[in-house]
Amino acid sequence: MRNHTFPENFLWGGATAANQIEGGFYEGNKGLNIADVLPGGKERLSILQSPGFNFEVDSEKYYYPNHEAIDFYHRYKEDIALFAEMGFKVFRMSIAWTRIFPKGTELEANEEGLAFYDRVFDELHKYAIEPVVTISHYEMPLNLVKEYGGWRNREVITFFERYVLAIFNRYKNKVKYWMTFNEINSGFIMPIQGLGFSIQKESDKYQPTFQAFHHQFVASSIAVKACHEIIPNAKIGNMILYAPVYAYDSDPENVMYALQEERIFNYFCADMQVRGEYPAYIKRYFKEHGIELEIEDADLDLIKEGTVDFIGFSYYMSRTEKMDKSDSTNSEGNLIGGVKNPYLQASDWGWEIDPVGLRISLNQLYDRYQIPLFVVENGLGAYDKVEADGSINDDYRIDFLKNHIQAMAEGLKDGVELMGYTSWGCIDLVSASSGQFSKRYGFIYVDKHDDGSGTLERKKKKSFFWYQNVIKSNGEKLHK
User: Fold this and answer.
1) Which family would the database say this protein is a member of (predicted)?
2) Predicted confidence band at 1 (pLDDT cuts at 50, 70, 90)?
3) Judging by beta carbons within 10 Å of its beta carbon (0-12, 13-18, 19+), is residue 417 exposed, middle or buried?
């Protein structure tokens, strides 16, 4: 008898975001969003992490890859057929807010946008693939950014509620897995994408950041309650960027520093969305940083009532920390900072590779919250080479994913309740952090390049056939 590590109903699939694959920049009455004004290339990360961005387009100076992306808007049938060939049980995607409410402030939803996602969901169901839908994934309407200041403005909650009610009512018979905000805690490091505003001065970041988070917590709870009422058989979760924080050594000062960093970055947003209340450690943090939130009378009750059904999270890397970094090498490639971990190798983009960290993450999250977990992003961004015969031999990607899936298997043996796994960028897409096509994650190669050239032709990589076997064997066949 075979011992199945993964449960029979395990949700294997892949993950994307609307702004990184769709294109169709102005089609279907779509409005402008944040991703539409972010240039491609090395400038993007600097913009995302530096103060003062003005959210304007300068087409003479920059290339904007999200405008066409990989043209999923027109090619979704071809792509979904490829996902089905791999055997996907689920496909994680997002709805572009500005396809439904182009400016974010309209009273009526845009029918062309609604109809597009009807077609996508119908195509997925044709192949028995369940959509897993992120409601807001780094694509806030630009109008809400410029005219309202993003999530700093409480009025945005009303606009978001109108949006979620429109999509829940429209798709109540087509979508049963939802998540509210993608990587909500990424607002700490990339507030432009997550919170819809640019910090103007580093010294001013605390108050607007946490006020914006508070508004998102209220909005998330409104969405959770609405989902439970409108689609009673659905499950709705949050989504966090999770990276376990290791102390650089056994110096108790470094251990305490790592603990504090982990609680603020990894757990604060999850505590709010799963436990439904402000924890004691954040209240001390507020006091020490002079943060005084504007909280309306019903907010805390609403947050308590609107807790999520599961935790969706991304896992790409771990993070190593010490108080005094002056004598250490910074881990500059790691998006979330820290110092270099001497025990880990790194990807082409400097992201440290740590499969054991995924098992650690699963155990930490499940020990803390005791609700189902869902790994909804995990993958390797790498340079891929198309050989003369057209093949793409991405053994490095297979090794990366194999080791992380093995870590999940160990987590399941540890007793973690894990719903599923959707590998990030199952088809090549525009990188959110670097705006590059050359940072490839997919099982499917897309002929599109950083200068905008390319035919958009799809090709199956070696990893396509490997993942096909992983799914077919329910995680038993992991070797090439």
Assistant:
1) Belongs to the glycosyl hydrolase 1 family.
2) very low
3) middle
The structural domain count of the chain equals 1
Express each pLDDT in 125-146 by its tens digit. 999 999 999 999 999 999 999 9
Residues forming a β-bridge with 346: 352
Assigned domain for 287 exists: yes
Mean pLDDT for 329-356 is: 87
Annotated active-site residue 377? The verdict is yes
The boundaries of the domain holding residue 323 are 11-472
Q: Is residue 74 part of a domain?
A: yes
* pTM, rounded to two decimals: 0.97
Q: What angle do CA 399, 402, 404 make, to 5 degrees?
A: 110
First vs last C-alpha separation in the chain: 23
Closest CA to 308 of 208, 408, 404, 216: 216
The mean pLDDT value for 200-213 works out to 87
In the prediction, which pLDDT does 335 show?
74
Share of the chain above pLDDT 70, in %: 98
* 232 domain-assigned: yes
Residue 454 covered by a domain = yes
Active-site hit among 294, 321, 377, 387: 377
What's 240's domain CATH number?
A: 3.20.20.80
